[in-house]
């Protein structure tokens, strides 16, 4: 009887040790996925941090045309750009670092909950493959080529609609109508400087 209890205890203990080591391996795999995803996490954080500056620059460009005299326009634009650069220089690293620190408790938890150890091994294999790396490195170039072609092919259809929208918004806000010379539709998306 004592021998059976001892064997049962050893089997239970071995199962617990095996589950704990599996859990440690799974946690290592999650950490590896997060490390491989770090550039994407950093880029998402950078885009998030730069978004307010990009929006402010768009608003400032509109205001420069209507609220600032032509003589002062360039000087004020440079001052605003310097302010925006200072903002991004301070905020982007802060948000990027915080995103990397939050990733294990957010993305890592989801990976741990929704992927088995075997699936995580497969995912790491895919992410580490040379073909995937090559594809990832090409993604920004692919996006640029698509956006450039899309803008070229839709500009003539979109610009009049942007002008109509701008006039409508100005009218609703009680702003003077934009002159033809100063009204340049924003059909080209602003691309914040990458760091």
Describe the structure.
With 195 residues, the chain is mainly α. It has 2 domains: 104 residues, no CATH class; 45 residues, no CATH class. It is 86% helix and 0% strand. Helix 1 packs antiparallel against helix 2 and helix 1 packs across helix 3. The longest helix is centred in the N-terminal third of the chain and has 66 residues. The C terminus is likely disordered.
Please outline what is shown here.
The protein is mostly helical and 195 residues long.
Write the layout of secondary structure elements.
Layout: H1 2-67, H2 70-114, H3 117-128, H4 130-173
Helix pairs in contact: 1-2, 1-3
| Fraction of helical residues | over 70%
Question: What overall form do the CA principal axes indicate?
Answer: elongated
Name the poorly predicted regions: 5-22, 181-195
Order of helices and strands: HHHH
Total domains, how many? 2
Mean pLDDT, to the nearest integer, reads 82
Number of strands: 0
Assembly state here?
single chain
Structural class comes to mainly alpha
User: Gap between N and C termini, in Å?
Assistant: 69 Å
Helix count, DSSP H or I runs of 4 or more residues? 4
Strand proportion: under 5%
| Radius of gyration, CA atoms, in whole angstroms | 27 Å
Largest sheet: none
């Amino acid at each position: 009887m004592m021998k059976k209890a001892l064997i049962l205890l050893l089997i239970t203990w071995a199962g617990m040790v095996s589950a704990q080591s599996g859990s440690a391996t799974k946690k290592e795999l999650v950490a590896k996925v997060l490390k491989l995803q770090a550039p994407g996490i950093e880029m998402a954080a950078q885009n998030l941090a730069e978004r307010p500056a990009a929006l402010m620059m768009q608003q400032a460009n509109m205001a420069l045309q209507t609220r600032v005299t032509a003589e002062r326009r360039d000087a004020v634009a440079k001052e605003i750009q310097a302010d925006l650069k200072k903002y991004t220089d301070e905020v982007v690293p802060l948000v990027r670092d915080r995103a990397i620190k939050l990733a294990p408790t957010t993305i890592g938890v989801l990976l741990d909950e929704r992927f088995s150890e075997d699936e995580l091994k497969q995912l790491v294999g895919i992410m580490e493959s040379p073909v995937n790396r090559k594809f990832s490195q090409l993604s920004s170039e692919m996006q640029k080529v698509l956006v450039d072609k899309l803008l070229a092919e839709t500009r003539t259809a979109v610009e009049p609609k942007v002008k109509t929208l701008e006039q409508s918004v100005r009218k609703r806000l009680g702003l003077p109508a934009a002159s033809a010379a100063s009204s340049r539709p924003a059909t080209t998306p602003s691309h914040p400087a990458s760091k």
